[in-house]
Design goal:
Helix Hairpins, 4 domains, 20 helices, extended, monoatomic ion channel activity, transmembrane, transmembrane helix, Ion_trans_dom
Length: about 475
């Protein structure tokens, strides 16, 4: 029996009744470090001796497919209580987890947003008649209904009703469906506030998972943000009352004439948009009144605002770290379930390449046999023929590797284009030939003799034999 989970919170260690992993050792719930440490070391080496019930009458093909589904659930962060339990749920799961279905979700979300360009008030040259854009909206919403129906067949109606994000999407869909029918019947468009909720359909698609996660983490970081915000408003009200009693007797000061004006003026002063104008009437009457504004800005702007930013950043960062641990542990649990299904109860410990290859045919059907074998070899660190659980934990890191033949380069120019390769190969052959080496040696000998002759002629010139200067010059040119 499954328990209620958050939309994006992985279900960990709750599958004992389904042949899943045993519970981890108890730890102190207040210690995040201890919890993470124990969860990272969930199963010791004895986990590899998992008992697979022999009364489970599953063919190997069914096991391969279910093991691949568990790994996909770990990758997609699908909760294990949504694992398909029968043939209908399996068919709906496979239909809802392919790129065509993902593109359908993305297209319907974008089309609903683009319809706002054609509805009144709309861009003039894109405006459509009411029955046209209302019909398009109904067709698009019908596609969303089909998407939700397939998800309900996969999840089951009980899990479907417990999923809060899906229920919110269903409620918005129902309201917009009714509103589109009303617009189509009346043939007049009214003020449609619900159009502002259309981005929900786009955010709920597969390709916007990071957007959903960030939105959820923003909402989760609001409680400490609200505490600091209330502290900021508390000081603002105190200074507004104090400013009203200090500066309201001045008839030339419009900023603090009433308590309402005091609150508005100090709120704007928090952004420094009216500074120093808000201070000048009081400052012209009494120079010491500047202390009020200096203290207010020091507390509100420089201290509490920076404290607010620090609290939000720290809270968001903590939530991000916990989410990363949660996703990592969810993947590890998925690999444990998959490992159990791939174990051969009659064979040796570990997963052989036959079981791994069968699972990969469902996990990545387009991957070649060579790539599957290379993936298996990259995971296998021991000298045995089978994969152990500790090695199988690295599945998600290795499965996305791209393999290519690495040629042994004899020369640095072997990867150049054909024309450049031909030129450099010719130069290499010429440089390594005996004739070229002999020519270079002879050239060096002549150069050495030329230097000796040149030095000798220069010495003769210094002794005063100027008549030989022309020959010396010629010898220098020859060098």
């Amino acid at each position: 029996m499954s328990v209620k989970q958050e939309d994006d919170e992985p279900l960990l260690f709750t599958l004992e009744e389904n042949g899943g992993c045993p519970n981890p050792p108890e730890v102190d719930n207040n210690s995040d470090v201890a919890l993470a440490t124990d969860e990272y070391e969930l199963q010791p080496e004895s986990m590899e001796q998992v008992h697979v019930p022999e009364d489970v009458d599953l063919s190997w093909e069914t096991r391969f497919q279910e093991a691949a589904i568990y790994l996909q659930e770990g990758k997609n962060n699908d909760k294990f209580y949504t694992h398909p339990r029968d043939a209908k749920a399996l068919a709906a799961y496979l239909f809802a987890h392919n790129h065509l279905f993902y593109m359908l979700e993305l297209s319907t979300g974008l089309l609903l947003l683009l319809l706002s360009l054609c509805e009144a008030p709309a861009v003039p040259f894109l405006r459509l008649d009411i029955y046209v854009h209302a019909t398009l909206e109904l067709l698009t919403l019908a596609l969303v209904v089909f998407e939700l129906y397939m998800k309900m067949r996969w999840l089951g109606w009980r899990t479907f009703l417990r999923h809060r994000r899906t229920m919110l999407k269903s409620f918005v869909l129902f309201v917009q469906f009714v509103e589109a029918i009303v617009v189509l019947i009346r043939q007049t468009s009214h003020v449609r506030v619900t159009r502002a909720l259309r981005p929900i359909f786009l955010v709920d698609c597969r390709y916007c998972g990071a957007v959903r996660r960030n939105l959820r983490q923003i909402f989760q970081s609001l409680p400490p943000f609200i505490d600091i915000l209330l502290l900021l408003l508390f000081f603002m009200v105190i200074f507004a009352i104090l400013g009203f009693y200090l500066f309201s007797p001045n008839p030339s000061d419009p900023y603090f004439s009433t308590l309402e004006n005091s609150l508005v003026s100090l709120f704007v002063l928090l952004t420094t948009a009216n500074f120093p104008d808000v201070m000048m009437p009081a400052y012209s009457r009494n120079r010491w009144s500047c202390i009020f504004f200096i203290v207010y800005l020091s507390i509100e702007l420089y201290f509490i605002m920076n404290l607010l930013l620090a609290v939000v950043f720290d809270t968001f960062n903590d939530i991000e770290k916990k989410k990363f641990k949660s996703l990592l542990l969810h993947k590890r649990t998925a690999t444990q379930h998959s490992y159990q299904l791939l174990l051969n109860p009659q064979g040796p410990t570990g997963i052989s390449f036959r079981q791994f290859d069968g699972m990969m045919r469902f996990y990545k059907p387009r991957m070649s046999t060579q790539d599957r074998y290379l993936c298996f070899r990259a995971l296998k660190l021991n000298r045995t023929d089978n994969l152990r659980l500790k090695e199988f934990y690295h599945f998600y890191e290795v499965v996305d590797f791209k393999w290519k033949v690495q040629r042994i380069r004899e020369h640095w120019f072997d990867d150049l284009p054909p024309t450049a390769l031909l030129i450099f190969k010719g130069i290499n052959v010429l440089a390594n030939s005996k004739a070229f080496q002999y020519a270079v040696c002879e050239y060096l000998k002549l150069a050495f003799l030329s230097v000796l002759c040149y030095v000798a002629w220069e010495s003769i010139w210094e002794l005063g034999l100027k008549g030989l200067s022309r020959k010396s010059t010629l010898m220098g040119y020859s060098y």
